[in-house]
Structure formats: structure tokens, C-alpha cells
Automatic annotation (TrEMBL):
The protein, known as: Tripartite tricarboxylate transporter substrate binding protein
PANTHER family the record matches: TRICARBOXYLATE-BINDING PROTEIN (PTHR42928), UPF0065 PROTEIN YFLP (PTHR42928:SF3)
Family: Belongs to the UPF0065 (bug) family.
Coiled-coil stretches noted in the UniProt entry, renumbered to this chain: none
Signal peptide: 1-21
Amino acid sequence: MKKRFCLYMMACAAVFLSACSGKEVTGVYDDNGWRPNNPIEVVATAGAGGGWDTTARMAAQTFEKEGIIEERLPVINKPGGGGAVGWAYMTRKEGNPHNIFVTSPPILLVPLNGQSKYGYEDFTPLANMIADYAAFAVRADAKWDTLNDLFDDMKKDPSSVSVVGVSSPGSMDHIQFIKIARAAGVDVTKIKYVSDQDGGALTQLLNGSVDVYSAGTSETVEQVRSGKIKVLGITAPERLEGETLEDFPTAVEQGIDETFVNWRGFFGPAGMDEQQIQYYQEKFKQLNDSPEWKKIREKYGWNELYMAGDEYEQFLDEQNEEMYAILEELKLLR
């Protein structure tokens, strides 16, 4: 009884201090820690239909459907700048734990190449949820049948082969190709990369404007099934499971000792306290372990890659150092 009275008095004090300071009370604290008391806004820092948007919507849907989180989780899109517009939006939510967003390697790459003044260190990492991988595809009638065929030509003249992706130079579609090509012995400083952020990258490949399409594995499946393109290699450490996906050879099995993971996780704004962070880590762990989320991973060809806490923070720091080194070699640091 005494403990409950103390908690009640603390809550009253918090409300009083909040009123005096003009700040909104965000969430409820009780014997079980913190919990939200308003809908949780889930931000996809891109337009509808892409990887960030799909991950945000599937996570929000599963949280609600499985009753893991009782509050609603509306998803909003904040596209632009390869994520930069959404990250700027999230900086204005500092201290409000009712706002989270999904992100991936561009939150490292885009700030490093000077296209955003906000990076991963400006937010609160909560949990990584999945791993996706890159695929390098060519037209079905292209002369190359393996990555080694392609890279043999690029070793002779790197600029003779054009590579297209939807991300800007120095961001993910560019860097995932650079990382594998560099391990194969190509002079990556001379690679011709074409950025098509308007959604026409695959069209450019099919009409012969470019030679290679650097994309996510799931973005190539339908065109492979229709016989229009072929995948020379993927960046996963081993072959993926699933119809068609299982046919994609890895760079590793072709003797190229390198991988690239498109990790995808959730962050909150700066200023979250330990109890708020713990709440989300526990909820994302429940999501990761749920049968429904496993079905979603299988549907989209995502691999499990759950990380939280110190493990996730260390992973991000290591990834940032690696991306820094690649951009420095390409002279794309800003």
C-alpha cells in the first residue's frame, strides 16, 4: 500500500512539473516500467511500397494483430533525400517515445556522403529485425553468366560496364555493388554508376541503357521468373530459401570472399530513457519470436537478424567504420 501511494505521489508530481514546464507527459510509469498511453507513430522515411515502408507496415500490423502492443501504430511516409527528410522530421520528436522509425544502411551512408546532417548517432537504436541482401542482375540475353564473367571484363576496363540502382551515388545500391566488385579485384574508383531515383532502374536495364541492375533480391524475383533477367550473384553468406531465391548463387560460392547485408531495424528519437528503450526492446523481441512475423519474413524473403542493446550499437559502429572506409576510397566523403 505504501509503495502504491509513493508511485501515485510521483505521478502527481510528474504531472505538476509537466504543467509548469509546458511539456507533455509521455507515457505511463508503474511497477512494470514504462508503457505508451497514446498511438505510436511509425515513420517510413520513404514512399509507399519500398523496403522501409513494407517493414514498417508489416511490423505495425503484426504488433496490433497479435496484441503485442495495445496502442494503435499508424504508419506515415516521409519520403525524400534517401531518408534525410524523415530523419529531420524525427529530430523534432526528441524526447517523445510515441514516435519510432525504420531504417537501414542509408542512415550511415547518406550522412557520410554529405546528403544529411543527421545520422544514426542522433537517434536511439531500439532493435534490428531483419536482414535482406543485394542481387546483381543483367538482361537474360547478356553475355555474362556469372559474377566472375562480369568482373573479368570490369578488371580490364571498369568504366565499360554501367551499373544502375535506385539510390544516389554513395548510398546503398551503389555501395553494395562496390563492396563485392572491390573484393573481386575491380578498380572501384572507375566504376560507372547510374542513379535512377524515379523508379526507372529496371526499365533502363531491360531497354539496354545500362548493363547491370543492383537491387534487393526480392526486387528481381518476378523478372527472373518471367525470363527477362538473370541474377549473376547475391551478397548473402549462403543461398537463400524460397522458390526462385534458392536458385540465386552467392558471390561467396563464386570465390569472392565478401558479403553485404541490408540490415533493417527500428530507432526512436533522441532523449528516450532506459525504461522506454526496454519497453520497445521487449516488444520487438516478442515480434521477432512470433509465428506471424516468421511468416512475413518468409513471404518477403527476409532473413532473421534480431539485435538490441549493446550488440546493436556495436554492430552499427562497426558498419559505420566500414562504410566510411569505402566512401573514403571512392572520394565520396563530405
